[in-house]
Specification:
alpha+beta
């Protein structure tokens, strides 16, 4: 009976020991993915900031500039692309809407970002775009992969329409989470005008051609990323834009169009940290808690089986003793 129980325990131990790596290295990469219908809104502010008044074309210091970023999963497009791509695909339609202190639009730039739901690698199909212009992204944007590594990544810059390294700068504590800190610096680069801008009497799509005035941009981009989910819990930019040369500036060499230290609004930081904290538990369950728990359970069952086998092999000394002689009187 002891040996039969021991064999059952050994079988269970082998099963759990084999299940642990399968769960981590086979099931997790296939089950962990970004939902196709995700919606997210983020508000960032630069306080104070320098902003160009397009009526007077004079740069002014203002109380704040607000940037509202929205990401909306396009489920219909995801399903359409999946039928030919043969893998799980997410399509994010995003919008970066910039408004001045009076609430009026300064610019808005839509994007369509198409990527693999599991790895976050870009998927190159028709429709990948920034402000209506076709692009071919390399590297990541908006989100890092699950189980982010301590290394540099390639990050796509929507303003410059090109990718550049974003550098891992160390591990830090942020709101109770251990996060990886990344930095990317885009040097002064000539960039297109947003197609929607408040410029009276001038079509922004042909502004450079009409006036010869070019738009330039530089930024230092900073992210604090939860390495478990790959989600940024905080983001900042030290951002500067200039208009240079041409007839629009009335003989001036350049004028600042926007300059400021852009930060996530505190209430959105709080909600982001709360969301990431809940999601990282699910990822840790698949990558750490269950695999290590199953390994420990398998080891415990195997040890119990060995103990039962040892008991079964122990000699029964009571059965080997001769019966006592009857007493004679």
């Amino acid at each position: 009976m002891h040996r039969r129980a021991g064999l059952v325990l050994v079988a269970l131990a082998v099963f759990f020991a084999a299940l642990a790596p399968l769960l981590r290295w086979y099931a997790f990469p296939r089950l962990a993915k970004i939902p196709a219908g995700q919606y997210q809104e983020m508000v960032l502010e630069a306080k104070p900031a320098t902003l160009l008044d397009y009526g007077t074309l004079q740069a002014e210091e203002v109380e704040k500039v607000t940037i509202v970023q929205t990401l909306k999963g396009n489920v219909e497009e995801s399903e359409r692309i999946e039928r030919t791509a043969g893998r799980d695909v997410v399509v994010w339609d995003s919008l970066s809407y910039v408004q001045g202190p009076d609430g009026k639009m300064v610019s808005q730039i839509p994007e369509r970002y198409i990527f693999d739901a599991h790895s976050q690698e870009p998927v190159h199909v028709t429709g990948e775009s920034v402000d209506g212009d076709p692009v071919r992204r390399e590297g990541i944007e908006f989100k890092w992969p699950f189980l982010t590594e301590k290394r540099d990544y390639v990050y796509f810059d929507a303003q410059a329409r090109r990718s550049a390294p974003i550098h891992y700068k160390g591990t830090r504590q942020f709101r109770g989470l251990e996060v990886y800190y990344f930095e990317q610096t885009i040097p002064w680069t000539k960039v297109p005008y947003p197609k929607k801008m408040p410029i009276p009497g001038i079509d922004a799509t042909t502004l450079e051609k009409q006036t010869g005035t070019t738009r330039w941009y530089t930024t230092k981009r900073m992210f604090w990323v939860d390495p478990v989910t790959g989600a940024p819990v905080n983001g900042e930019e030290i951002h500067t834009e200039e208009l240079r040369g041409g007839s629009l500036l009335g003989g001036r060499d350049k004028v600042t169009a926007f300059a400021g230290h852009v930060k996530m609004r505190p209430d959105y930081v709080d909600s982001t940290v709360e969301l990431v904290t809940s999601q990282r538990r699910l990822v840790l369950l698949m990558t750490s808690y269950l695999p290590w728990g199953l390994t420990a359970l398998g080891a415990g069952l195997f040890a119990l089986a060995l103990w039962l086998e040892a008991r079964a092999r122990r000699p029964d000394t009571a059965a080997g003793e001769p019966a006592p002689e009857p007493l004679s009187v």
